[in-house]
Amino acid sequence: MNEIGFPSVQSYLLKMALNGAIINLDLADIRECSRLLRYSSNNINQIAKKANETGNVSQSDIIYIQDSLDKLWKQQDEIIKNLTKVLEVV
Questions:
Q1: Is residue 21 in some structural domain?
Q2: DSSP characters for 47-75?
Q3: pLDDT tens digit string along 29-59?
Q4: Does 13 map to a domain?
């Protein structure tokens, strides 16, 4: 009960009675994926502005975008693996 953060025994028992189980998810992976997505989106916007101003995009910008997207895909795969583990328990 304390690990999940229920304020009282009564609320814990009520939740258990209604649902039969309580799942406490660690959302750190999802927060990290959101952070990477926000960071990548900002960088892609900056690169797009630069491309519109100059008419070209550097190879290093393209590599940077690819690396950022690779990190996002890896993070998403980790999230899916973790959620699969949770679903196997339930």
A1: no
A2: HHHHHHHHS---HHHHHHHHHHHHHHHHH
A3: 888 888 888 888 888 888 889 888 988 888 8
A4: no
